Input
Amino acid sequence: MKKDMTVLKAIIEADYKRHVKKFEQINEPKDLILLGDSMMAYFPTKAFDLEDQLLNFGIPGDTSIGVLKRVHQVIKLNPKYVILNIGLNDFVLTDLSIEESLKNILEIRHQILEGCPDTLVYVTSLTPINQKDFKDQTYLLNRDKEDAVKLNQLLKSKIDERFFINIYDELIDDQGDLNIDFTRDGIHLNQRGYKIYLRMIKNILK
Output
């Protein structure tokens, strides 16, 4: 198990560097930027015909620490909207406490607002996980579904309700796990799950 996580972290770090280098070369702004980890990175923008409307700055495996290091790439583009989803990987890929993750997320939002005063910055809740139906996924090792619940509660208490998107409650089943109908591996969403995400985003952009 420890070896699996070590290999996974090495893969994630290399992928992070590739993405950061690619994002650094983007100079043409678009109205909307999706920012965060795999939840944003895997957003099916092509299937939903959104490629011309947004930039996807999601990186699989990213953490709040990683986003803080690259938030300047968003600020320089001065978008109209930013939707941020980050924090779920903090629980297994960093030593941050829940309070420290919260502080980082709020700091990311603060830096964007400070650098782009006219930008509307939305923060989405962390998404649930499903360990009961997907027991052997490396991505699910050492995770506690209650961590996301606790951080979501803190985010909700700190961010104006106009700018907090609660996607969590839309995705859970009766046991509080990620609904199996909305996931392909117990942590990442399938297209049906992303349709719910898309509906909530469109409601904002109206």
In short: Residues 2-205 form a domain with the Rossmann fold fold (CATH 3.40.50.1110). The first helix runs from residue 2 to 24. The two ends are 46 Å apart (CA to CA). The beta strands are 32-36, 54-58, 81-85, 120-124, 164-165.
